[in-house]
Amino acid sequence: MQPPLASWMTPVDRDVLEVLRNGNERELVLTPGVIAANTEWKRQTVREHLLQLSDERLVAYHDETRALYQLTDRGRRYLRGDLAAEALEADD
């Protein structure tokens, strides 16, 4: 079951987080281009959403020089349902 989206989130955000989570397999560390190649979204769209997700502390750079992103503990908690969407609204 997917967690509900915060008001600022779109399906792009959920897709990005889910690709990084990689189901029940080992989490992935990916570039915006690789995420885009595995979703229906364009690379620029993915990049813009990664920046917002980073601002919200759901993802972070694994390697900024290579633009590799990974989930944060906060992102994992959100995907598991341990962090409510409402908590993402109030957290500035």
Please tell me what the overall shape is. globular
Question: Radius of gyration in whole Å, from Cα?
Answer: 12 Å
The CATH homology group name: Winged helix-like DNA-binding domain superfamily/Winged helix DNA-binding domain
Q: Give average pLDDT, whole number.
A: 94
Distance between the termini: 26 Å
Give structural notes.
- With 92 residues, the protein is mostly helical.
- The protein has one domain: Orthogonal Bundle (Arc Repressor Mutant, subunit A), CATH 1.10.10.10.
- Helices cover 48% and strands 10% of the residues.
- It is built from five helices and two strands.
- The protein has helices at 11-21, 32-37, 43-55, 73-80, 85-90, and strands spanning 59-63, 68-71.
- It has a two-stranded antiparallel ribbon with strand order 1-2.
- It starts with 10 loop residues before the first helix and ends with a helix.
- The mean pLDDT is 94.
Features:
48% helix, 5 helices, Arc Repressor Mutant, subunit A, two-stranded antiparallel ribbon, globular, mainly alpha, 92 residues
Please give a quick description of this structure:
The chain is mainly α and 92 residues long. The protein has helices at 11-21, 32-37, 43-55, 73-80, 85-90, and strands at residues 59-63, 68-71.
Note the topology:
Layout: H1 11-21, H2 32-37, H3 43-55, E1 59-63, E2 68-71, H4 73-80, H5 85-90
Antiparallel strand pairs: 1-2
